[in-house]
Amino acid sequence: MRCLSTALATTPSQSLPPPLPRLRSPFRILNDTTHTSPTKIKTYPPPPSHRAKHPFPVADWQAHHLKQLDPTGSRTRLFDRDNPDVPCVGDILLVTFKTGDPFAGVCLSIKRRGVDTGILLRNKLLTVGVEMWVKVYSPNVQAIEVVKRVEKRARRAKLFYMRKPKHDKGSVEKEVEVYLKRRRLIRSGALGIKDPLKSAKNPSAARSGVGAR
Predict the structure, then answer these.
(1) Which of 115, 119, 105, 117 is nearest to 148 (CA)?
(2) Where are the beta strands (DSSP E) in 80-200?
(3) Is 129 helix (H, G, I), strand (E, B) or coil?
(4) Is 103 helix (H, G, I), strand (E, B) or coil?
(5) Cβ neighbours of residue 92 under 8 Å, at least 6 residues apart?
(6) 211: helix, coil or strand?
(7) Chain centre to alpha carbon of residue 170
(8) Mind listing the pLDDT tens digit for each residue in 112-121?
(9) Which of 5, 26, 106, 189 sits at a 20 to 30 Å CA gap from 92?
C-alpha cells in the first residue's frame, strides 16, 4: 500500500511550470544611474490676470450695462434712495411702453438690484386683480410717471397684504384720468404752469420723474 507522500510525488517525466520573472523594484529604478532621464516638458507662463484691472467684476459689469441702458441717468436718480421725490410703495405709477398699452397700478414692491431693478404694480381690470413686474431699465419702457403719492408712508417695504379683498385698493383708472387731464392742461398752458418737458434741457429725464402729488 502506497503512502500519501509517494502517491502525490511528482515523477521525473512531469515538468513544472517555469518560475515567474522577477520584477525590478521601483526604488531600484529610481536609484539606477543608467536609466535615461525623462524629457522636459515645455511650460508656459499663466495668462495675465484681470484682477488688478477689475477688482470688483460684478460692480463693473453693472456699471457698464447701466451706462448703456440709462445714458442720461434719469431712471437711476428717480429710484435713488437719496432723492426726495423717489417713488414709494403705495404710490400710483403709470408706465408707458414703446410697444403696447400703458399700465398703471399701485406700487406693491420696489426691488433695487442694479440692472434688474423692478417695480410691482397692481390694478383691477374688469373686477380681476392684475399684477405686473416692470423692469425699470428695460429698453421697452418709455416713461415712468408718478400719478398720485400716498398720503401716509407705509410702514412696510412690501404691501402684499393689499391682495386681500379687505385691503384691495381696486381700480386706479379714475386717478389716472384726472392725472392725464391735468397733464394736458399743463402742456397746453391753460393753468399757467410751466411744462417740465419744455423747460428741461433733457426731456427724457424730466418725463421719467414728472408726477402729481
Answers:
(1) 105
(2) 92-97, 103-111, 118-125, 128-135, 141-148
(3) strand
(4) strand
(5) 104, 105, 106, 107, 146, 147, 148, 172, 175, 176
(6) strand
(7) 31
(8) 998 999 999 9
(9) 189
Separation of alpha carbons 78 and 206, rounded Å: 10
2 has pLDDT over 60: no
Report the amino acid identity of residue 22. Answer: R
H/E stretch holding 5: helix 4-7
What residues form DSSP beta bridges with 134?
119
Spatial neighbors of 29 by CB under 8 A, at least 6 apart, are: 35
Displacement of CA 108 from its chain's centroid (Å): 19
Cα separation, 28 vs 15, in Å, equals: 33
- For the question of whether the overall pTM of this predicted structure is more than 0.90, the answer is no
Name the nearest CA neighbour of 154 among 71, 88, 102, 98. 88
Q: Which residues contact 15 (CB under 8 A, 6 or more apart)?
A: none
